[in-house]
């Protein structure tokens, strides 16, 4: 197929990517046939994938609104994805127009599209980087000068950690990224749990093995371990629609068809 204008030259358009599959489910237009094929096949094994994506986005919005209302003005959003509705800076700025956001993603399409829509916005920045290289992220954030990580900051890892296996030490990355942040800084996580059956789990894992970021499901205890050094705020680690639900959200946003852990922690 031919490369559309919005696609960076150096990407492999024959290999699906997690960010573009998620874009398919959110109704976006920055995806290729390979992504749509994996999205369709995943939906056969997990018919609620679209509802999950919407519920995850709705949780992200609620968490950012909560943090902004608590006085957080800096957001480091890793695995930020392809921009869509209610991006982090838009939600935070409804509370305080001075809120600053650094978006980080490993995926070149997510980074290129984020840069395109945020060009000229001096309270956001976009970095191409890998959670597994936390030093590189910290260096790029410091060099950019937009966030002062000695001030309270929220680290957002939303629908990201299930793309990082334990062998790549996501716990170490979180410790390094948040180690220099002051008490009162926050960590936001959503993490896919094991699904309805071993068979459907394996089908989905098999599909994502075609992407550069295969899937790792985690149980409650494994997910809670990401919050080491943080205190979970009420209601703790819960299925994502149950985290401070908002009565004005649609039924889809409150989808309960799969267990996806969601939590917000405050650094002690
Ligand atoms: C499902 S999307 C989530 C987007 C957004 N956080 C949300 O919840 O709406 C996951 C994103 O994580 C990115 N990602 C996966 N592995 C990553 C890594 N090691 N470092 C940085 N980003 C990564 C993918 O490229 C993708 O854009």
Automatic annotation (TrEMBL):
Pfam families, A to Z: Methyltransf_19
InterPro entries xrefs: SAM-dependent_MTases_sf, SAM_dep_MeTrfase_SAV2177_type
Protein name in UniProt: S-adenosyl methyltransferase
């Amino acid at each position: 197929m031919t490369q559309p204008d919005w696609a960076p030259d150096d990407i492999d358009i024959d290999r699906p990517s997690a960010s573009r599959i998620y874009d398919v489910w959110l109704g976006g237009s920055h995806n290729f046939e390979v992504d749509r094929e994996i999205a369709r096949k995943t939906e056969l094994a997990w018919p609620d994938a679209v509802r999950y994506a919407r519920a995850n986005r709705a949780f992200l919005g609620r968490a950012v609104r909560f943090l902004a209302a608590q006085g957080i003005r800096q957001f480091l959003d890793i695995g930020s994805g392809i921009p869509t509705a209610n991006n982090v800076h838009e939600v935070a700025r409804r509370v305080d127009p001075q809120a600053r956001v650094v978006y980080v993603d490993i995926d070149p399409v997510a980074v290129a599209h984020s840069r395109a829509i945020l060009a000229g916005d001096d309270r956001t920045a976009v970095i191409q980087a890998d959670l597994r290289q936390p030093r590189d992220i910290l260096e790029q954030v410091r060099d950019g000068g937009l966030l002062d990580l000695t001030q309270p900051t929220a680290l957002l890892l939303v629908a990201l950690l299930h793309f990082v296996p334990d062998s790549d030490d996501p716990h170490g990355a979180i410790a390094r990224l948040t180690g220099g942040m002051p008490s009162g800084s926050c960590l936001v996580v959503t993490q896919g749990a094991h699904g309805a059956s071993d068979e459907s789990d394996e089908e989905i894992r098999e599909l994502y093995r075609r992407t550069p970021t295969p899937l790792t499901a985690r149980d409650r205890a494994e997910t809670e371990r990401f919050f080491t050094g943080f205190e979970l705020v009420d209601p703790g680690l819960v299925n994502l629609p149950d985290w401070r639900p908002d009565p004005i959200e649609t039924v889809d946003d409150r989808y309960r068809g799969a267990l996806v852990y969601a939590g917000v922690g405050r650094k002690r």
